[in-house]
Amino acid sequence: MKYVMTLVALLSVGCGGKTAGVDMVPYYDLASQLRKQIKVLYDQKAYLVKYVIYNEKPEQVITHQPDWNKEFDPFFEVDIHAPALIGLYSVDTTRAADSTLNLVYKAKGDDEAVRELDVNTNRNGDLLSFKGILFTGSMLNKVTRTVTYERFKGFRIDVDEKSKFSSDNAYTVKGEVHLHEDYFE
To answer: Is 56 left (phi over 0), alpha (psi -120 to 50) or beta?
Structure first.
């Protein structure tokens, strides 16, 4: 029993927040910030004007009661706030004179789907805007998606698909958020 207690004590001291020299500080929690904003959009009964541009042909859709959870799905894909991703991104932090914070995360290798995430927050850490670049691909097909979001104003998704056996595709989805009531946080 004495040996078991000693082993437990050594393991707890040895695992004090670092693994193989990697800092255990998590990245910005984008998903929780997006969930907060989705709640406000539902509470304010916001509507969405969406533009889809494919083959240079624009199409406009107005949705008075959008499913904000579904609309935000592509933006949750750039959230890198997960223990398994710690240490896989370099971090550059800049604080502006107006106390806003800019966090830029860049993948250290080519294995990560999220290649870059650029987050802007207010002085309290609340999300103001972000831009994320995702890459997926194989020998036959490569897809680059750039997602951009500005709090309570709108979003943009640019998709560029390159294929070895078919023509390349590119399309853009733009969304304008309209609040029925003025909202100031």
So the answer is: left
Confirm whether 113 is domain-assigned: yes
Sign of CA dihedral 117, 123, 126, 129: negative
Phi, psi of 42 (to 5 degrees): -65, -45
**E strand or H helix at 11:** helix 2-14
Mean pLDDT of the chain: 84
CA separation for the pair 44, 38 (Å, rounded): 10
pTM of the predicted model as reported, rounded to 2 decimal places = 0.80
- Lookup result for tokens 């590119």: 170
Does the residue 122 lie in any domain?
A: yes
Question: Looking at the predicted structure, is the pLDDT value of residue 112 above 90?
Answer: yes
* pLDDT at residue 3 in the model: 41
Range of the domain at 36: 23-178
Could you tell me if residue 107 is inside a domain?
Answer: yes
